[in-house]
Fold each of these.
Amino acid sequence: MQLNQAIESFIDYLEMIDRSKSTQNDYRYSLSKFNEFLQNKHNGPVYVEDIVLQDLEDFLMHEKERGMASASRSSMLYTIKSFYNYMCKKDLCDKNLALLLEPIKVKQKERDYLTEEEFEELVNAITSPLIRAVIQTMFYTGGRITEITNLKLEDVDLENNILHIIGGKGNKDRDIPISLKLHKILSSYLKNVRKPEVKTDRFFTTKKTGRVSNNYVNGCIRKALIKLDWDKEISAHNLRHSFSSNLLEKGASVVSIQKLLGHSSLAVTTRYLHQDKSVLNDAVNLL
């Protein structure tokens, strides 16, 4: 079987087992890059049975030489292993070559996060009321950028103060309480910013496209950082880290933060918790 056919079969399988569209798209992207690399290497269509271990290693090395971060390459390796597990299960290949690949060591870099005061400075540096509302929702709920930009009107229950996240990462749903502060922000957005003539059920909309793109949000954040002249690497995802770190400092339990972030593992949640050195100093002095 040609590699591109096997990839399509695998994506269909992911659809069948209800993997999220986001996961399907990520897998398709990585495997398409793999197929493209092998076609260029062998100057033509590639068949699954002709692939050897060296091909897999060459592909991962190619991505490293292109400057891909270790975390992204590790994710690609995971995708390739999942793909080979599927092919072996369906008897599309004789040997699971991916099992012979060594794990990629991921360099854990601690992300910058914002205090509440810093976040207010960031908000004030953004001119768009729409983007202000988007990033405030992220900061006060810990939602992922895609979860927030994909919110529908029916997902934002201001009467019961609940934000319904539908089809989050891993295709999981969860509810996040809306704080009094965020309630005022979202109510004001609906009253003063959102255009009623926009024919879409999305909560956050632009008049032109009817939706807000992740790139647009991050672009507005970058412009604000330049205006503030900050030496911090901040993107929309850092607001999720900021949410968890500020909650921890105010005494919230790690288990509560885990549930709000939608993590299945506490180990993942701990990567989102950042402690100021002074807090750590106070902690050891408790003994």
Amino acid sequence: MDYDAQPREYFLNGVSTVLDIHTRVADLYSSPHDQIKEQLRLTIETIKERQESELINNPEYGLLASVADEQRLSTLSGPPTPDDFDDLLRKVWKEPGFFLAHPDAIAAFGRECTRLGVPPPTVSLFGSQFITWRGVPLIPSNKIPVEDGKTKILLLRVGEKRQGVVGLFQPGLAGEQSPGLSVRFMGINRNAIASYLISLYCSLAVLTDDALAVLEDVEVDKYHDYPVNYK
């Protein structure tokens, strides 16, 4: 393998916001629920939603922008069929981790499987049921864009040991709550407003080209009419 004298540098993308809470609210309404804790939880969930969108759609490091040209496929006929999913598996054939698709795309795939008489099996993950294809689960994300009735479906191999897609974060942040996420108290102003700085730093890297593939031009608005025949 050729040595790259100037390898690509990955910069962590920062998402930050400030949560303001009046001390009166924290003092008077923190039973049975801790108001500060709950407000922080809701704010962190909002930031994580933004993180998910950035990891998929960021033009510099997002999954959709990181797919190599030879790993891009188009559907055979428009709707996502089992044959299309087999083509994706052909591109990421070494230890594929999961498909990532908009819920509309997963529903469209389910309709095609029903039409062909090959209902996909399900698997229990994180306490919920997910459909699978060839043993690989389909994970939904509404952050994958749907435009003019078309979307994209990703297939990933994940993990550093597998030379797949890996997440990047800064360890050891002040006030660290989870990898790359920190919460810091900024003080109380003269109006008795307590402020908290919530920061999240993230990025991702695709270690090898064959760790990521995408199925493009996936139509999600096609439905089938089934004749009703009674004996």
Amino acid sequence: MSIDETGPSALERFVQIQESLTLRWPEDRIEPTLERVARAVELLADPQQAYPTIHVAGTNAKTSTVRLIDQLALTAGLRTGRFTSPHLETVRERICFAGEIISPERFVENFDDIEPYLEMVDAESIGRGGPAMSTFEVLTVLALATFAEAPVDAAVIEVGMGGTWDATNVVESAVCVITPIGLDHSEYLGSTLEEIAGEKAGIIKADGLVVVAEQDPVVAEVIAARWWIDNSRLVVRC
């Protein structure tokens, strides 16, 4: 799809989109459901299934870990997609492929492609008495669709908050990485290390590979229990 030459420029349209995102449910609020984002990717024919994914959760060093994995994959000759949060200057920083931040033109084209489906999900959710999609949910869907369209050989996805109910958890990751876990976002994830670890371990998928940084013993026990249940392969960094 190309930008309509009679309409606003790509930069003007990008500003409009960015402003519209600020009017959505704020991304620092979460609720225990993946229903809206799962419905959105379903309407888009599940773009997240078009490539293998490395999913990264934790409290500390998530973004730096994602960047490191991305760089290693690029060095190995893979064309990668990278999704991180938050951003510093522009929301475009969150979506990168082949090591480059998405351009305003591509951001606009891809957003305009998926917007009708986002509006359908909004209408369905509001019709049931729920909220429209959150800012983070929209950006997650945009990233997943962008990587499928690019296309990429693999995507490295950073969890926004928690794990189990984070919008990014619609991916069926081949590999999940859990960086050091501490007390964070206790108003949403729980007041104890055990509760928070349980939320973050929610990204572990059956039969997948789990790479875990050195953890507090309480956290390690929670992760090990989840690994055992899902019959995953576990690699622990000591």
